[in-house]
Design goal:
The chain is mainly α and 96 residues long. It has six helices and no strands. The longest helix is centred in the last third of the chain and has 16 residues.
Length: 96
Amino acid sequence: MPKLTYGSRIHEVRTTLGLSLRDLAERAGVGASFLSRLENDDIKDLSFARAVAICDALGLSLDELAGRGDLKTRGRPDLRKIRHMLKEVLDQIERP
């Protein structure tokens, strides 16, 4: 079984989404060369701020990036978000 790294996880999702390194770099606000080095495991320590930016750009949670989330379940609705949105709508409807 191949070793799971931040870089391999990012590469897997990026290529699945059909994004180039440059596309992801723009979305995440990081350099394409940084992403390339990260995907090739030349960078071992990823700062929290950069991890969040990359996750946001890929639509990943930090748990998914860390390998604790199953990428196969991606695309399923996030019930917490749906519940929150419904509550907001109901709150607006109930206001006089």
